[in-house]
Design goal:
Order of helices and strands: HEEEHEEEHHEHHHEEEEHHHHH
CATH superfamily of the largest domain: Transferase(Phosphotransferase) domain 1
Low-confidence stretches: none
Radius of gyration: 20 Å
Largest sheet: 5 strands, antiparallel
CATH class of the largest domain: Mainly Alpha
Helix content: 40-55%
Distance between the termini: 41 Å
């Protein structure tokens, strides 16, 4: 969220004092991230700095419990949430859930290039995530992959709206025009994801804990060069390819050589594993479909969001650039056997 939510700073400070016993915290809004429902702040005290995250609406409580569990299991790349005075890992303010973390100064993988060693470290960390035993009490609440066509149906509906409706908001007008211009690509992605989902439903794939959004923007390199994994908003039990699709997947600005190097060093850290090519292709197509649906939700269904709107439209356009996600998805599809 690039614009502050309509919550007075004093109200947030009061919660930090009462729930977390922070002494006279000074609050600074941080205009970060592409998520229009999440706002983040830096809270500074005399002894320590903290990272405050506010998420609008209902929050999946497993998204907070999972990083706590992973850190307890020794995966140091994960930054765990801090507990309230009552022992809870979150609290609420207005219509937001508030989560408090230690503040880790650094830059994400969109702001700095991840080194070969960082990709190796990421491989080691994700292998730890994928092999962590999940207690039944948490597993029962985790989302589970079901290859739903919900996002595909929504994108098809947005295509119809873009072709037939008149929009007045400037960003909505641009997005609708681009949806029409890219109809062939978008329709291919929707249809291909549906076809691959049908194949995967018949395969007995092992489900593991997945971060589900582990692109470079959710990798933080701190001031010592140490890699951290952040933003556990949507953990899911799914085939490991749900996470592996991001490695060499084209989210960010990369050359073809960069993408190949990512895979080489990542799998050195992850270790020998068999990657299901159908699952990899499915997730690379489905992720694009999900992003298109999210951008259309934000930009076609409402004119709210301020400067977040132009930024989101920029992200939408970037998907069609050379070596970006659609380019990579097509190359992944081309490597599949002709008969599945």
């Amino acid at each position: 969220m690039l614009e502050k939510p309509a919550i007075p700073d004093d109200n947030i400070i009061a919660v930090l004092q009462s729930e977390y016993s922070l002494t006279y915290p000074q609050l600074t809004f941080l205009p970060l991230g592409a998520d229009a429902n999440a706002a983040v702040y830096r809270a500074t005290t005399a002894n320590r700095d903290y990272f405050v995250k506010l998420r609008r609406g209902a929050v999946d409580q497993t998204s907070i419990a999972i990083p706590h569990l992973l850190r307890e299991q020794g995966i140091t790349a994960v930054i765990p949430p801090l507990a309230t005075r009552a022992g809870s890992l979150w609290t609420t303010i207005a219509d937001f859930t508030l989560i408090l973390y230690p503040f880790v100064a650094g830059h994400n993988g969109f702001e700095v290039n991840l080194s070969d060693n960082h990709w190796l470290d990421l491989g080691q960390a994700l292998k730890g995530v994928h092999t962590t035993p999940i207690p039944p009490s948490i597993a029962a609440s985790l989302a589970r992959e079901n290859y739903s066509d919900d996002f595909r149906a929504r994108v098809t509906g947005f295509q119809q709206q873009a072709a037939t409706m008149r929009f007045t908001d400037p960003v909505a007008i641009k997005l609708a025009a681009l949806l029409v211009a890219k109809e062939t690509d978008v329709t291919r992605l929707v249809q291909t994801a549906s076809q691959l989902a049908a194949v995967l439903k018949s395969q007995p794939l092992e489900f593991v804990l997945c971060h589900s959004d582990i692109h470079a923007g959710n990798v933080l390199i701190d001031s010592t060069g140490t890699l951290r994994i952040v933003d556990w908003d949507q953990p899911v039990l799914a085939p490991k390819e749900r996470d592996l699709m991001f490695v060499g997947g084209g989210i960010g600005s990369y050359t073809r050589r960069d993408l190949d190097a990512q895979e080489i060093y990542f799998y050195q850290g992850y270790g020998e594993t068999s990657v299901n090519p159908v699952a990899l292709a499915y997730y690379r197509c489905e992720r694009i479909v999900q992003d298109i649906a999210a951008y259309c939700d934000q930009l076609l269904l409402t004119d709210a969001g301020g400067q977040d709107r132009e930024v989101s439209f920029g992200y939408f356009i970037s998907q069609f650039e050379p070596n970006a996600v659609i380019d990579v998805a097509y190359r992944t599809l081309a490597s599949l056997p002709s008969k599945l």
